[in-house]
């Protein structure tokens, strides 16, 4: 018995030894593998990314402006691969239905490679949904390890990190930084300089002066062709801040493009206030007297330009727009329009639109959870957020497509930081870059470009000077970019879509007189209430209180 017991104990000890031996032999192998992977990668922010060539697959919308994306043919691809030692294999989606196909692949668990890049119109709702389901990878751990440039951007522009962090605290997508001084102050208005000269009038500064100018333009033949064919105001429902009501309403109330604003930490629907009603009254007066062209409510941008260019570009008295390039086709016509300062309304109210959250651009990068080489991908993406990578991504090759000038001024009045060599390749078929597919963090705005010679239409200088003028009365009242959890986002988007449709239709009807702002005001407010406007505001207020309260002080 004693011998059998010893034998059994010996067998047990032998098995334990074998197991321990196996475990000890596996551990060094795993450690060696991990150390090999880690040592193959460079330190944070150091190039090349990998000692050995690594291949990553990037899913991107195709572009008619990129002739080739391949190494040796595309300048940006070649430069990035040479700098990083990362080879890119491309997975193209047709641009026309890229968003639809992406959502289909995400929801079905399709192979999206190692990185999703470009303008797929990813929004907070889809990122929160796919992220919470584990389909898109959370990024904050990778950013912490490898995101030196991204972390700098978050420090300099905390709104970006706050606005793109999901309700669960994770980051599922990386957005571009929208560094554009004039873009954030783009709810502007322009008047015809030759009309002013012919009428011996000055640029309007009040709503009453604007009315007098428009009336004179309609009645006194300032273009001198012997006909009363001049148009007062003409706008567009689709062009850049070209809706007939947008700029003028700033003489009566705060509002953004959605008719909202924040005051004293409260989200307010301007279109429910007496001040907004007063603005509609004024616009209706202009319309009744034929001072607002009725096509303003149906024009697209091309139609707007056609109307402005009639009579050799001397046809329209005033245009609401972000800039002359968006409403006039020819430089001579663009030069003939002057910026109007923010108007004072009948009660002395005066403000100008300022989107302080404009720095939060569209999402450009997301990492599929089933992709490979996440560390390499994050290091590659972080490199794209560097200064040189951005400049090459936007303008092309230094010394070929752009260069740093010496001793010249920029459109913003400071020393110029770049000038184009030849034609800007943006919107042109080329092999210099990826046409914005990897837009990231510009080191400076486009107004840092060297000024053009006198006599030429210099868009950057015109827009910068206009924005600087508007900055004097800009209110810090814009609504943040909210990040709702998926169910709330679905309900919010439903409400926003329906309310936006109603506002667009009813604003036009009130202005042209199809609805009476006096008789139908209470009915209009009741209709909004029945559509869920109170819930719409409440959803935003709850998110504002949780994430943004006190941010405007």
TrEMBL record:
Q: Which InterPro entries match?
A: Bact_solute-bd_prot1, SBP
List the signal peptide residues: 1-24
Which keywords label this protein?
Signal
List the PROSITE patterns hit by this protein, alphabetically: PROKAR_LIPOPROTEIN
What Pfam families does the annotation carry?
SBP_bac_1
Keyword Signal among record annotations: yes
Q: What is this protein called?
A: Extracellular solute-binding protein
The organism encoding this protein is: Paenibacillus baimaensis
């Amino acid at each position: 018995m004693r011998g059998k017991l010893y034998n059994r104990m010996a067998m047990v000890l032998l098995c334990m030894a074998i197991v321990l031996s196996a475990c000890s032999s596996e551990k060094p192998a795993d450690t060696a593998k991990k150390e090999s992977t880690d040592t193959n990668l460079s330190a944070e922010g150091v190039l090349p990314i990998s000692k050995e060539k690594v291949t990553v697959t990037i899913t991107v919308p195709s572009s008619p402006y990129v002739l080739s994306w391949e190494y040796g043919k595309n300048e940006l691809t070649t430069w990035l691969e040479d700098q990083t030692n990362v080879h890119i294999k491309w997975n193209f989606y047709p641009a026309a239905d890229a968003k639809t196909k992406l959502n289909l692949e995400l929801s079905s668990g399709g192979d999206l490679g190692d990185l999703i890049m470009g303008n797929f119109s990813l929004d907070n709702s889809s990122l929160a949904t796919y992220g919470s389901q584990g389909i898109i990878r959370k990024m904050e751990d990778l950013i912490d390890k490898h995101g030196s440039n991204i972390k700098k951007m978050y420090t300099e522009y905390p709104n970006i990190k706050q606005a793109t962090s999901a309700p669960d605290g994770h980051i599922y997508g990386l957005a571009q930084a929208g560094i554009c001084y004039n873009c954030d102050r783009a709810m502007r208005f322009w008047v015809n300089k030759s009309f002013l000269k012919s009428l011996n009038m000055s640029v309007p500064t009040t709503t009453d002066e604007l009315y007098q100018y428009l009336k004179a333009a309609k009645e006194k033949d300032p273009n001198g062709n012997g006909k009363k064919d001049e148009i007062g105001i003409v706008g567009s429902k689709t062009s850049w801040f070209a809706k007939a009501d947008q700029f003028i309403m700033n003489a009566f109330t705060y509002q953004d493009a959605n008719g909202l604003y924040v005051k004293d930490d409260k989200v307010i629907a301007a279109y429910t206030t007496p001040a907004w009603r007063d603005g509609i009254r004024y616009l209706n007066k202009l319309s009744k007297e034929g001072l607002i062209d009725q096509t303003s409510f149906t024009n697209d941008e091309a139609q707007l330009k056609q109307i402005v260019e009639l009579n050799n570009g001397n046809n329209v008295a005033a245009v609401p727009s972000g800039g002359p390039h968006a409403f006039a086709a020819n430089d001579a016509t663009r030069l003939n329009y002057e910026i109007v300062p923010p108007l004072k309304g009948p009660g002395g109210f005066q403000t100008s639109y300022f989107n302080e959250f404009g720095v939060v651009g569209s999402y450009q990068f997301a990492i599929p959870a089933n992709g490979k080489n996440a560390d390499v991908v994050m290091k590659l993406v972080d490199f794209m957020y560097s200064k040189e990578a951005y400049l090459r991504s936007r303008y092309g090759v230094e010394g070929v497509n752009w260069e740093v000038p010496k001793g010249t001024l920029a459109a913003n009045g400071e020393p110029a930081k770049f000038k184009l060599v030849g034609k800007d390749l943006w919107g042109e078929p080329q092999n210099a870059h990826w046409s914005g597919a990897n837009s990231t963090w510009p080191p400076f705005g486009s107004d840092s470009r060297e000024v053009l010679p006198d006599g030429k239409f210099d868009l950057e200088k015109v827009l910068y000077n206009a924005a600087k003028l508007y900055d004097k009365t800009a209110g810090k009242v814009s609504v943040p970019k909210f990040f709702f959890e998926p169910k709330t986002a679905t309900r919010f988007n439903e409400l926003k879509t329906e309310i936006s449709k109603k506002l667009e239709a009813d604003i036009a009807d009130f202005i042209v007189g199809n609805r009476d702002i006096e008789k139908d005001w209470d009915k209009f407010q009741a209709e909004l209430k029945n559509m869920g406007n109170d819930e719409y505001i409440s959803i935003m207020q709850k998110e504002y209180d949780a994430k943004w309260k006190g941010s405007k002080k």
